[in-house]
Write a structure and sequence with these properties.
Distance between the termini: 15 Å
Largest sheet: none
Number of strands: 0
Strand content: under 5%
Radius of gyration: 19 Å
Shape: globular
Order of helices and strands: HHHHHHHHHHHH
Helix content: 55-70%
Number of helices: 12
């Protein structure tokens, strides 16, 4: 198999694993009281940082670029809304909505070169536009805001990679392998979540609402998220962000909807089942169009 074929295979396998884990990583938390989510966020982000540290050691500690932390800061800011979203509109619908806006923001910034990035070209642009559009056709204000923030998390990393080719840039010679930035990304996540948690403790007059029973489920959720993100980084490298974003951000919503149907009974009634099947067909069509636009 050619290197291109190997990259595509690795990219789609990584995307599939990322979709499964992103759609499932909040499942361990559904049966536990997580309160306002601030303590849970800190636990989850601590687990993400530890998992990223292991990945960094496996990669023999590539150069740390502080600017890559900015994406993690943005993600942690968007993640604050996760618990309120799950409590108000459910896991499945929440992931569908923020996944849609995640896809839209990430795809457009990569495809058209926003925020100083190089615009990415694909062999079949019309098919790519169609795939991205179909992946977004699902859609509550917190979920929308979270989706937009989530979709911006990879901008700093892509910016560093794009400017690594320019000799006059401070990022000249930076790695083109996305996974080399996972530790910096996770460090931004943990630093920002810690700042938010400390601010929360101050606002609560040193009487924060802690939920010990949510510690282990929150840690497991963070580990699952970190593994999924590593797979996403690999998919970005193998497929390019303009292809991986619509696929990986749209798919978890359906996985979460399956959990909502069979485990948590969030979605009931024949009409809702048919609507969900219709949505899945749209998402699948969008993912396939995006995938074929690469070749």
């Amino acid at each position: 198999m050619s290197n291109n074929g190997t990259d595509l295979t690795l990219g789609f396998i990584s995307s599939s694993v990322a979709i499964l884990l992103f759609g499932s990583n909040y499942v361990p938390l559904k049966k536990y009281d997580t309160g306002d989510g601030m303590f849970l966020q800190w636990v989850l982000c601590a687990a993400i940082w530890l998992a990223a540290l292991v990945a960094n050691l496996v990669l023999h500690c590539p150069k740390f670029w502080p600017f890559a932390m900015v994406g993690g800061c943005i993600w942690a800011t968007g993640n604050i809304a996760v618990v309120p979203v799950m409590k108000t509109i459910g896991l499945g619908l929440g992931l569908l909505i923020w996944g849609s806006f995640n896809a839209l923001t990430g795809w457009t910034s990569s495809r058209f070169g926003w925020f100083g990035m190089d615009a990415e070209e694909v062999a079949k642009p019309l098919l790519n536009y169609l795939g991205a559009g179909l992946s977004v056709v699902r859609g509550c204000s917190l979920a929308v805001i979270s989706g937009i923030l989530y979709g911006s998390t990879f901008v700093p990393i892509i910016y560093i990679k794009d400017h690594s080719k320019r000799n006059d840039s401070i990022y000249a010679g930076a790695s083109h392998y996305d996974l080399d930035y996972v530790f910096a990304h996770a460090s931004g996540i943990f630093l920002t979540s810690t700042i938010y948690f400390l601010a929360y403790c101050i606002a609560m007059k040193n009487n924060p609402k802690l939920y010990p029973e949510a510690v282990l489920p929150g840690f497991l959720s963070g580990i699952l998220w970190a593994i999924a993100t590593c797979c996403w980084f690999i998919a970005n490298h193998s497929l390019s962000a303009v292809v991986s974003f619509p696929i990986i951000t749209a798919g978890p919503g359906f996985v979460a909807a399956m959990w909502g149907v069979f485990m948590f009974k969030e979605i009931q009634g024949q009409q809702n089942y048919l609507l969900m099947i219709f949505a899945f067909c749209i998402i699948l069509t969008g993912a396939l169009c995006t995938a074929f636009s690469k070749t």
